């Protein structure tokens, strides 16, 4: 029996998480209206619909910035994990707010006329060759479709049916969407406004997101370029913690999680068969590696889920030389029994 | 502490204590940050201008209608001043004035006022009965004014639609509003030229072609961009017209 598609249950944590999310959205929208009204000169006001357009647009941009920060931050501290595993909720909320923004824009700016709204949206400004006049609307439309695709396939059902690889590739498009949105805001709203606050905010969001990813990339780039034949260096024996793993990235193939459990080292693929969760960030519970995402389990010695389940991941040979741990870069067939290496036996030190 | 105590598993019903504490703090921090961001982003927006439009406040306006270059009504404003009010319908469109039918006669138009400073536009009521022939004699003061040539000029500014700028939208200029302004002008609403900076601009010039007729659709690509326009300025009562030629338009 395979786990197959299984709906993930609601937990008190998820409820609290969503409550915060809802509260955050409401706080932003209400305060945005209040401060917009307060910021206007006497006798002037912005139209409520146009305030709502600016509020929803800026909020979805901020939320996307937040979403993109969670992944790299979680590489620096485990405490971000709860945010990581519930990132999708923020993603779907972001899409809903972007949808509101798009609907208001289409109705307000492009509607109320005999001209087709989509003609107005995409053809009213043909100045694609000009920086100053660039039709920022088209960038927003493209980003919106990416967010739509992601929100529509965000459910576990799609993850199970597209397979973790394709699903992940699809969801990497979020970076394209973010880049498009930076352009959309810069060539649109920011260009129109006189305050320095806006270019500074958008610029720092873009810098923050790219800087974080570069820093996290450096952090997790393990020195796997030290080779012993097919074997790559993992870490010194002393760097291992009981019940936890060190993760290495071979030059090709899936990342490898090398676990220390009861004084023995064993290596399995880092990729959970359920939804691609990072097994190396999990813990050994009841002699099984437990995926931190939804708790699928795999035996250390053969990469198989305990009965009655039938998931299996690849296993790898491990060896220790001069106090340094190496792992074979070539995976064995998923589910292949591979004897763990004892740190206390002769074969170790 | 058991294995599970500080290990967060997404599906698990128990959240480790350390995670709960971090999550509460981070959550509160994020909420505060969200509020700060709303204040900063909302509060720093440019002014929307002093335009107003109360769509529900339908009034009857007596005066003399003319269709060219754009539909207008010479009328007495609520404060008694005689003005040239431009006419629009409720949406981004222009009411059809079958001018011959009302030539030389006083009419009554039903509609709501869109105003910005001294500028007035009447958004006519959305029904067939928005205009009717008025009975009684024509007061002299409302007679269409003679036109007066003020010479040629070269001006820098932005092409906008009068309806939005008078108060239908706030803000009503710039790139974000470009597509909307294009729709309005395409539908026959009078395009205007505002000399930058907008804030210090008290008068606006209504754009017509060289002969004083409505501008062609060729003007549309230039809407909301920074422009240099040259032409002849003509005054007709309280309205300034800029007679110009789209082929001489220059982006700045
Ligand atoms: S990804 Fe769901 S349990 Fe591993």
Automatic annotation (TrEMBL), chain A:
Principal localisation: membrane
GO cellular component, one term: membrane
Keyword Transport: no
Domain of life: Bacteria
Name of the featured protein: Rieske 2Fe-2S domain-containing protein
Membrane topology: Multi-pass membrane protein
Region (Disordered) residue spans: 328-349
Keywords, ordered alphabetically: 2Fe-2S, Iron, Iron-sulfur, Membrane, Metal-binding, Transmembrane, Transmembrane helix
Compartments, as annotated in UniProt: Membrane
PROSITE patterns: RIESKE
Parts of the chain that traverse the membrane: 20-39, 51-70, 90-111, 131-151, 172-190, 196-218
One Pfam family this sequence matches: Rieske
InterPro entries, sorted: Fe3_Rdtase_TM_dom, Rieske_2Fe-2S, Rieske_2Fe-2S_sf
Domain Rieske stretches: 232-327
UniProt GO molecular function: 2 iron, 2 sulfur cluster binding; metal ion binding
Coiled coil: none
TrEMBL record, chain B:
Superkingdom per UniProt: Bacteria
Protein name per UniProt: Uncharacterized protein
